[in-house]
Amino acid sequence: MLRYVIAPSARYTKASHDVVRHQRLSSDAKILLLYVQGLPDDAAYKPLSELARRLGIKGRAYQKAKEQLVEHGYVHEWRSQGEGGRWLTEQLVANNPLTSEQARHLRGAPLPARPPSTHFPAVGGPASRTAGGYEPVEDHSDKTTPHPPPEAKPTPDPNPAPPPAPTPALPPTPGPEPTPAPPPARPPAGLFAPPPAGLSAPAPEPTPPPPPSTANSVQLARAERVLLSLRHSRRELHLGLREARTLAVEAVKWLERGLSESDLRHALLAERPDSGVRSAVGFLRYRLIQKLPEPNVQPQPRERPPLPERIECTGPGDPHVFRPLYGETECPRCRYAATPEPEHITWRERVARIHGTPTPLPAGK
């Protein structure tokens, strides 16, 4: 490669080799950094996005270049809320990578004065609004006061009347002594007595729910363990601890019907929807309720008919007993002994008897 280079004597920017030869900065990020470095002081107050727009770097290309500069410490940003609730964004661009502490230190240093902007005063001055020459009276009729208005105090009488003379008290006349009231009868144990007059009956205490049995708590723990393990197979079925405990009530019904933990896990993971799972809780609750298998019904054993009574065999031989099945009087052994043995004939004789022909002689005779 041949090179023909003339160093410029004016209108140039010193670029560091660390920036030009940086392998993780794109060409847009390098050009934007060098362009900002060579700006005059009066143009450095504009936002970085506007300066990038002048270079033709817009949209996603600008966002990518800015992310690279921020990642490697060439650009730092701070967002703060100023007076009036308006948010302000301060940007710092450096030709050398800076850490967050170094950038905050430079941010606190005094900056050169910014040239004042031109403001056009509004016509006239501020004035209050008038309506017909009188001030409107506030209407409080729609408001509810927490306390009633104070009552008007009566006007004192200037000539009050003298108080009446006190009447002498008479001694009390003795009378019959009051009979004490009998104590209220105490109701027998197990009966409810109404409260005495003037007293309200105490509110019944709420009955606490019965604690779950040991077997049911074990089933709930198994179901909860299966639901929490689904996230290892499908990340979209990630459940929290409270969500798993809520769904474990429905999953226990599967285990109570004879299914194992592997069968329950396979049923919840099978047939994945094409559109994905938006809500893991809703998807699993629907599948647990809709695909609940039928209860495992144990077949009832059939009742065998009663065995018949033993009777004595009437066949020949020593006396013995047997159980008749169809009302017979002889045992199977005696019946078989009384049956004559069938005649053993060859197939040629059998065919000859069927067709009525003489019995053919065997071959060779």
Features of the shown structure:
5% strand; two-stranded antiparallel sheet; 365 residues; elongated; mainly alpha
Give the strand tally: 4
Spans with pLDDT under 50 lasting ≥5 residues? Answer: 187-193, 208-212
CATH classification, class level of one domain: Mainly Alpha
Radius of gyration: 54 Å
Strand content: under 5%
Shape, principal axes of CA atoms: elongated
- Give average pLDDT, whole number: 76
Instruction: Note the main sheet.
Output: 2 strands, antiparallel
Structure description:
The chain has helices spanning 17-20, 27-37, 48-54, 59-71, 100-108, 214-228, 241-256, 261-269, 280-290, 332-338, 347-355; strands spanning 75-81, 87-93, 311-312, 321-322. With 365 residues, it is mainly alpha-helical. Among the domains are: 17-108, Arc Repressor Mutant, subunit A; 214-290, no CATH class; 309-356, no CATH class. The radius of gyration is 54 Å and the shape is elongated. The model is unreliable at 187-193 and 208-212 (pLDDT under 50).
Secondary structure layout:
Elements: H1 17-20, H2 27-37, H3 48-54, H4 59-71, E1 75-81, E2 87-93, H5 100-108, H6 214-228, H7 241-256, H8 261-269, H9 280-290, E3 311-312, E4 321-322, H10 332-338, H11 347-355
Antiparallel strand pairs: 1-2, 3-4
Write a concise synopsis of the structure shown.
The protein contains eleven helices and four strands, in the order ααααββαααααββαα. It is mainly alpha-helical and 365 residues long. The relative contact order is 0.04.
